[in-house]
Amino acid sequence: MPKFDDHRGASRGADDAGLMPVVVQDDLTGEVRMLAYANAEALERTRSTHRATFFSRSRNSMWIKGETSGHVIDVREVRLDCDEDAALYLGDPHGPSCHTGSESCFGVAGGARTPLLLRLEAALEERKGAAAGASYTKSLYEAPERIGQKIQEEAGELARALSGESDERVASEAADVLYHLMVGLRHRDVALREVLAELDRRFGTSGHAEKAARGGSTPK
Questions:
Q1: Of the options 3.30.750.24, 3.40.50.720, 1.10.287.1080, 3.20.10.10, the CATH number for the domain spanning 116-208
Q2: Strands 87-93, 32-38: parallel, antiparallel or unpaired by DSSP?
Q3: CB burial class (10 A; 0-12, 13-18, 19+) of residue 31?
Q4: 3-state secondary structure (DSSP) of residue 16
Q5: Residue 157: is it exposed, middle or buried by C-beta count within 10 angstroms (0-12/13-18/19+)?
Q6: 51-67 as b/e, with b when 16 or more CB fall inside 10 Å?
Q7: What's the CA gap between 197 and 195, in Å, rounded?
Q8: Quick check: 154 pLDDT over 80?
Q9: 30 dihedral zone (left: phi>0; alpha: psi -120 to 50; beta)
Q10: How far apart are alpha carbons 34 and 53 in whole angstroms?
């Protein structure tokens, strides 16, 4: 977290009102959630409380994201850009971040693109309402035993590609594995974010220790 000589004053790169724009990004998925403004005190409060805190230009006062809605953002890290005139909050959002009820303020209407795997997750969820004859994904949902079979089949093809096929084949087979894995997650209604959170939890843990804790067979 950057340090400031005076909470009440502007940081080196803030505007004449002592404010700088703050982009809020989901630390797990990479999704950009919102943009607001903060002064030095708001940044310091965010650092000390780990709750996304901003300064309202219209109300001329400090505010905490989710204070009334409950849709708080737990901030893991605050970064300044290279010119120190903009900040980035990396955090864990709890619920929608936009006042409209959308997950992100930068939705389709704004022209922004969400991270690829989140777009895939949304598309696979939509396929649940498709006709099986028109959608391969829906045909898997209707015969869920095939999902596990396809994951095993595609994983075997990826293993063979890794053993001696071209990089293009490795990428293609890996994409097939990811697709079928995502179908399986959607079938079980397990969010991609839950998987990413589990991977994040394992950072800094020895693969052997993780295996022993889970009773698993393959160290990371």
A1: 1.10.287.1080
A2: unpaired
A3: buried
A4: coil
A5: middle
A6: bbbbbeeeeeeeebbbe
A7: 5
A8: yes
A9: left
A10: 12
Q: Which superfamily does 20-101 belong to? A: Phosphoribosyl-AMP cyclohydrolase (3.10.20.810)
List the structure tokens of 18: 């002592």
What is the β-pairing status of strands 20-26 and 87-93? parallel
206: nearest Cα among 220, 192, 194: 220
Which amino acid, residue 156? G
Contact call for residues 5 and 41 (beta carbons, < 8 A): no
Taking a C-beta distance cutoff of 8 angstroms, is the pair 97, 33 a contact? yes
Specify the DSSP class assigned to residue 120.
Answer: H
Q: What is the pTM of this model?
A: 0.70
pLDDT tens-digit readout, 28-38: 999 999 999 99
